[in-house]
Design goal:
With 195 residues, this protein is α+β, with helices and mostly antiparallel strands. It is 19% helix and 36% strand. A hairpin with an 8-residue loop joins β6 and β7. It starts with a helix and ends in a 5-residue tail after the last helix.
Length: 195
């Protein structure tokens, strides 16, 4: 009887070890497959945003600059795009407190010639400054604006175009209290817009 219990326990233990070994191999395979299959993705366009004030002014407006940096050797379509039908670079803004992006001013595109096209393409390359105005609701005074800026673009070099994609910026912007003054910042960045 003790021999039967011992044999049963031995078989149970061996089964448990076999299952554990199979699970361990499965986990190792998953890790081994995941590591080399995840190359570091390098976006062709990066973005940063700057405000003209230190806090958002409730019931008022402030300026915003979205600065894109396009990787050397690449370009993105201008807004408006030319020729017609090309995907224009486009900026959108979402704010949970109701802040809205208005009066977006895209820079003039640079014309370039491409093989197989009998007209110029209007593009941006290098640094691209897009200006806009943020309108802040009065009822948001003293709150924090959770915002997301999305830039939609299509990157091309002189031989190919990548699929259209987006770059996103997200963060929290402090909204001033009802009677709290806001201070101007980043004056050098916003000077060219005042022409």
């Amino acid at each position: 009887m003790d021999l039967q219990r011992f044999a049963f326990a031995l078989v149970t233990c061996l089964l448990a070890l076999t299952v554990s070994a199979a699970e361990a191999v499965s986990e190792v395979r998953q890790v081994a497959q995941a590591e080399p299959a995840v190359p570091a993705k390098k976006d062709k366009v990066t973005a940063e945003a700057h405000l003209s004030v230190d806090k958002l002014p409730p019931g008022s407006e402030c300026k915003i600059l979205i600065r894109l940096s396009v990787e050397k050797g690449w370009h993105i379509n201008s807004n408006p795009a030319a020729p017609q039908g090309f995907i224009a670079t486009e900026v959108s803004f979402k704010g949970k407190q109701g802040t809205q992006l208005q009066s977006v001013k895209y820079p003039k595109g640079k014309p370039i010639k491409m093989q197989d096209l009998n007209q110029d393409i209007s593009v941006y390359d290098g640094k691209v400054d897009i200006f806009g105005v943020l309108k802040v609701p009065v009822e948001a005074a003293g709150l924090t604006e959770d915002m997301e800026i999305v830039v939609k673009y299509q990157a091309c070099d002189d031989q190919k175009c990548l699929l259209p994609t987006t770059v996103k910026l997200s963060g929290k912007l402090q909204i001033a209290k009802a009677d709290e003054p806001v201070r101007s910042v980043n004056e050098k960045l916003f000077k060219p817009q005042e022409k």
